[in-house]
Design a protein that fits this description.
By secondary structure, this protein is mostly beta strands. It has 1 helix and 14 strands; from the N terminus they run E-E-E-E-E-E-E-E-E-E-E-E-E-E-H. A hairpin with a 3-residue loop joins strand 1 and strand 2 (14-18).
Length: 196
Amino acid sequence: ASFASQTPATDGERVYAFFGAQGLYAYDFDGKLVFKVDVGALPNMGVGDGTSPVLWKDRVILLCDEDTGEKSFVAAFDSKTGKRLWHYQMVHHDLWDYDNPTAPVLADITVNGRRIKAVVQVTKQAFAFVFDRVTGTPVWPIEERPVPKSTVPGEWTAPTQPFPTKPAPFDRQGLTDDDLIDFTPELKEEAREIAK
C-alpha cells in the first residue's frame, strides 16, 4: 500500500508529515527520521485520513479523522519527542458523514477579559470546537447530548454526540416553521406535513 501525506509543515529544524493510518513522522533536514508516532488505526479505506500538521511553539496539532468516526479527534503532540499532550474526540461512531473537513485553526481570543491561545476545529455541521491549545481544555463547555438511534438491523449508534455550547453554529441548524414556503396557506400546510 502507498500512503500520501497532506502538505508537510516545518519549524525550521524539522519537517512534520502526517500519513493518516501510518502516523505522524518528524524528519530532520538530512532526511533522518527523528520520530514516528502511531496515532491509532484510522481505517479509511485502509489508509486513514487527516490534515496537514499545524505547528505552534513546541506543538504539532493534528486533525485525525476517519469515516466511521471511531478516531475522529484533534490532538497535540510535543514537536521534539512526538509525545501526545492532549486529544479530544469530536465524533462518536460517525454514521452521518460528520467527519471533520479541515485542519485546525490557531486563534488568539479573549474570553471574559482573559487572552487565550486557542485552536479551533470546525465541522461539517457548522460547529466550532474551541480548545486551549496548551492544555486541550475546551474554552466553553462541550455537552454530550442524546442522538437518535439507528433503526437499520445490525447497525449501532453512539448514544450521545458532543455539542459545543459556544460559539453559536455559523450556519442554520435544522428547520423552523418560519423557514418553510408560504406562498399560499395550502402550500404552507403541505410544507409542514413534509417537514414532520
